[in-house]
Design goal:
The chain has about 220 residues and is α+β, with helices and mostly antiparallel strands. It folds into 2 domains: about 90 residues, Dna Ligase, domain 1; about 80 residues, Beta Barrel (OB fold (Dihydrolipoamide Acetyltransferase, E2P)). It is built from 4 helices and 12 strands; from the N terminus they run ααβαββαβββββββββ. Strands 1, 2, 3, 4 and 5 form a 5-stranded antiparallel sheet that branches. The chain has a 5-stranded mixed beta barrel with strand order 6-7-8-12-11. Strands 9-10 form a two-stranded antiparallel sheet. The two termini are about 40 Å apart. It comes from Cercospora beticola (Sugarbeet leaf spot fungus).
Length: about 220
């Protein structure tokens, strides 16, 4: 390799290290589009879980127990924050009954299940297992959402056209500017969509959740 070629490569490598160091010093991280896509895939807030619950069964649905469980217990959970799952239930499937939790985890569960009746209670109790799709925006998960609300102190995002994410001003990049009516990025372009990292979330009443995110340090 010629001397001038080595010198050019060394200069380029030195410049790259200098840029990375300056970026980290400013509290930012150089991120490529590919790495953001990887983070969106690897840190998805949507999870599939299998859960077994001990549920009371009303006598009126004894002839149709699975339909009764779905109508009385599972369907009301749609788009509701459910504390045992620490997330919002999006859907469920593969509901099956069992006499103990271990049987419910087997795909070839029992064809006949006996519910338990306790003293004078009018309901029976049975173990029910199902597969749930849950939205669980734990800290450090990534969301790609559209801007739906903004003012000088906050940027509001909408994820899946339903869940709202609040980005406080201090969690926006330093080179973003408020032009009096909307936020613009470092290139002066209006921000319509953004990838954010979840800082935290908490139940906010009526089965919904409040999500706080950041656009710094992605």
């Amino acid at each position: 390799m010629a001397k001038n070629e080595r010198t050019a490569e060394e200069a380029a490598a030195k410049a790259a290290r200098k840029a990375e160091k300056a970026s980290k010093k400013a509290g930012k991280q150089v991120v490529t589009a590919k790495s953001l896509d990887d983070n969106l895939d690897e840190h998805s807030p949507i999870q599939r879980i299998t859960a077994t619950l001990y549920i009371p069964l009303s006598p009126v649905v004894n002839n149709y127990p699975i339909e009764g469980v779905c109508a009385e217990h599972f369907s009301p959970l749609y788009l509701q924050y459910y504390p045992p799952f620490d997330g919002v239930v999006l859907s469920y499937e593969n509901v099956r009954l069992s006499e103990n939790p271990e049987e419910g985890l087997r795909e070839d569960g029992p064809s006949t299940v006996l519910a338990r009746s306790i003293n004078e209670y009018g309901v029976e109790f049975v173990w029910v297992t199902a597969d749930f799709l849950v939205f669980r925006p734990a800290p450090n998960t990534y969301l790609k959402a559209e801007v739906n609300l903004q003012n000088e102190s906050i940027l509001g995002l909408l994820y899946l056209n339903y869940f709202t994410v609040s980005i406080p001003k201090e969690n926006l990049p330093e080179d973003w500017k408020w032009d009096g009516s909307q936020w613009v990025d470092a290139q002066g372009e209006v921000v319509k969509e953004a990838v954010c990292k979840v800082v935290d979330f908490e139940p906010s009443g009526e089965g919904s959740i409040s999500i706080t995110g950041t656009l710094v340090g992605l």
